[in-house]
Design brief:
heterodimer; A: mainly beta; six-stranded mixed beta sheet; five-stranded antiparallel beta sheet; 61% strand; globular; B: mainly beta; seven-stranded mixed beta sheet; four-stranded antiparallel beta sheet; 53% strand
Amino acid sequence: KNQVEQSPQSLIILEGKNCTLQCNYTVSPFSNLRWYKQDTGRGPVSLTIMTFSENTKSNGRYTATLDADTKQSSLHITASQLSDSASYICVVSGVSGGYQKVTFGTGTKLQVIP
Amino acid sequence: KAGVTQTPRYLIKTRGQQVTLSCSPISGHRSVSWYQQTPGQGLQFLFEYFSETQRNKGNFPGRFSGRQFSNSRSEMNVSTLELGDSALYLCASSSRDRVTDTQYFGPGTRLTVL
């Protein structure tokens, strides 16, 4: 069964600290992995997209890594800000028989406190 | 450039009724995807339309259907509503020129079924 598991489920950190969120997947075939940030009451916003051949991608203070061999990805947030408080969702896509299969993780809820 | 717009933003229906949700993608985008988000199941993929054709479909019953018009605007219809259909329905658009093209999400339509 295709699955995307994220950890931790929730996280509280102090403003200015770094943190790393994890995503393990068993989706096959694999096409790309995306990290989204979703603020409460809003639609998700894309942070990074990585294909099989990419092992790191940065977007400002967000850096995503991908190990396609172990099927693991991480999202590292540097120097956290209060506005980073949100849910972070890992999404894995694969193309099979001309159709795209999209599997979402349940997300990590991050709270940054002053 | 205007973002993805969804109407209505909020909707209350009763069991057995049907509902139609609308999504207007970013100008120039030809791909529109629909997602259902619930606290228990997280984000789940419903279907994707590209140039008026359904390209991909998630694992949802036939009560969920959609269509895309020649101007790329898309509608999603849910017939015979059930209590479990209460959710945030998100629409996302992309140019879909490449599989890694960024998806841009709308604010969502919150459907409550009583």
